């Protein structure tokens, strides 16, 4: 009876589609199903002339975009005023009518949501519409981005993420290889015994070069990993490109318009409409009926497999976790223990059995190796010391905790491995090593122009703000330093190494420890001398890093034999003498920078390293100070002189170490957790 019902239903559905002469291809006749708007608040317009030019540029888009392959750019304005650039990009798989409809409907909403801004963007299901007073053609724009996702998750997140990663990398290359008419890629991947299929689409504005498109889509892939692990559907959109995937088929394949010669203005004739509607319907009708029957069979087989599923490794631990919850959540992120597990054999193969050639560094609690997983993903593998006294359950729980800290300015923990005596953490691979690798090298620091240094300071600020205020638990890093700030391929800062981190409940603000651990030179006085730590001790470390970034000097000269004055009092002296700009790294002489920005950073750095912890600003205030030039910064007070050689000898036993670190490998752990 079920099979007869499905067959009859599909037949009636297809018959209705044919007789009403409507296409069943996805999104062809649908209105936009979402609208996301981003208004760039850096500048507003007040003149009627600009408003008139803006409306003229936008009004030209709907009628032209459908006749130019789904992409059109216009400029309005005369030489006496600021020109306005506008563009529209339609999804490359839809027809001209749906394209024109989407662009036409988006413009009034965009104007309502961004009334006076000189730059704005809107993303709908079928199109992107943007305008700006800046040039846009041939420019890779990343001033903003957005994301949407389905909150439903798959059962096997790790397997799903691997399959999605393979699909997105393939589509990235295909889209970037497109021509100046269209840079679009669609495709699917099927994985697992249940034959789960992921459908994907990636597209760039066709004015971008191959490298620009690839770079833009790489950003969407990164954001998909950060926001949407295991989710059945998601979209990420930048001004110049977008990516989308779903467990449901959502695109037209092949596209309704495949080349310019097939473009037509106005309405299609009834004969043409009937051809592209009826022929696909007839061709797929038999297949859909068969799919319906096959789906019922597979559903029954899936239930049988689930009931017979074998337990995974760490069975006793996972069984215990299932009694409460098999997943844990921070904000919108869902992490399961199973999704984070890697087998030792997988890690050994990825690192060429922990080869010396693969070694890329040494962290606080072990060696770090570069690895390449079977799917081609590059990872950083941290092999913790075998002398760690941490138990399996504590190790797993803490790995899950760190994995939930997902932010673009934090190095992401992808998973863990525990086998016999091995405790291993798998992180995303960050190609440009650490900040100190560039900052304190006489040759490499030339790559750090002022714009890059400003971006790095901003990235660290946002990462710390997330740890202190935006994650579900308040995280105190306790070992923030230049070597723990990694730089990705675009020199964006990512905070790394949470080996000494502590978590607080949202209402807890201060902690104490009898074992001071961290790196001298970055430690706040209350922590180094009394073991008191809080978000303000992280702020102190941040202030030291800011002064190091500005000056290009390491805050460790006082460890040397010549007793050269260390960075903090030196910066204070320059500030009080009215010669703050002389603190700037000499390698930046002659390059482009803003005096106000440099002085602002020095002021913020000195505010952060004040001896009184309560006088130091919060990360929210610091972000506001960096982004808002209208904010008047308070005058800083004199930084502490607590790091004398006598104190260094008391703590570390060796005053001559170039970068003394206080820690205990035998008690290594990822975090030290405090209850709420």
From TrEMBL:
<keyword id="KW-0597">Phosphoprotein</keyword>
<dbReference type="InterPro" id="IPR000719">
    <property type="entry name" value="Prot_kinase_dom"/>
</dbReference>
<feature type="region of interest" description="Disordered">
    <location>
        <begin position="654"/>
        <end position="676"/>
    </location>
</feature>
<keyword id="KW-0723">Serine/threonine-protein kinase</keyword>
<dbReference type="InterPro" id="IPR008271">
    <property type="entry name" value="Ser/Thr_kinase_AS"/>
</dbReference>
<feature type="domain" description="Protein kinase">
    <location>
        <begin position="354"/>
        <end position="642"/>
    </location>
</feature>
<keyword id="KW-0675">Receptor</keyword>
<protein>
    <recommendedName>
        <fullName>Cysteine-rich receptor-like protein kinase 10</fullName>
    </recommendedName>
</protein>
<keyword id="KW-0067">ATP-binding</keyword>
<feature type="binding site">
    <location>
        <position position="382"/>
    </location>
    <ligand>
        <name>ATP</name>
    </ligand>
</feature>
<dbReference type="Pfam" id="PF01657">
    <property type="entry name" value="Stress-antifung"/>
</dbReference>
<keyword id="KW-0677">Repeat</keyword>
<keyword id="KW-0808">Transferase</keyword>
<feature type="signal peptide">
    <location>
        <begin position="1"/>
        <end position="20"/>
    </location>
</feature>
<dbReference type="InterPro" id="IPR002902">
    <property type="entry name" value="GNK2"/>
</dbReference>
<dbReference type="InterPro" id="IPR011009">
    <property type="entry name" value="Kinase-like_dom_sf"/>
</dbReference>
<dbReference type="GO" id="GO:0004674">
    <property type="term" value="F:protein serine/threonine kinase activity"/>
</dbReference>
<keyword id="KW-0732">Signal</keyword>
<keyword id="KW-1133">Transmembrane helix</keyword>
<feature type="domain" description="Gnk2-homologous">
    <location>
        <begin position="30"/>
        <end position="136"/>
    </location>
</feature>
<keyword id="KW-0812">Transmembrane</keyword>
<dbReference type="GO" id="GO:0005524">
    <property type="term" value="F:ATP binding"/>
</dbReference>
<keyword id="KW-0325">Glycoprotein</keyword>
<dbReference type="GO" id="GO:0005886">
    <property type="term" value="C:plasma membrane"/>
</dbReference>
<feature type="compositionally biased region" description="Low complexity">
    <location>
        <begin position="658"/>
        <end position="669"/>
    </location>
</feature>
<dbReference type="InterPro" id="IPR017441">
    <property type="entry name" value="Protein_kinase_ATP_BS"/>
</dbReference>
<keyword id="KW-0418">Kinase</keyword>
<keyword id="KW-0547">Nucleotide-binding</keyword>
<keyword id="KW-0472">Membrane</keyword>
<feature type="domain" description="Gnk2-homologous">
    <location>
        <begin position="142"/>
        <end position="250"/>
    </location>
</feature>
<dbReference type="InterPro" id="IPR001245">
    <property type="entry name" value="Ser-Thr/Tyr_kinase_cat_dom"/>
</dbReference>
<feature type="transmembrane region" description="Helical">
    <location>
        <begin position="275"/>
        <end position="297"/>
    </location>
</feature>
<dbReference type="GO" id="GO:0006950">
    <property type="term" value="P:response to stress"/>
</dbReference>
<dbReference type="InterPro" id="IPR038408">
    <property type="entry name" value="GNK2_sf"/>
</dbReference>
<dbReference type="Pfam" id="PF07714">
    <property type="entry name" value="PK_Tyr_Ser-Thr"/>
</dbReference>
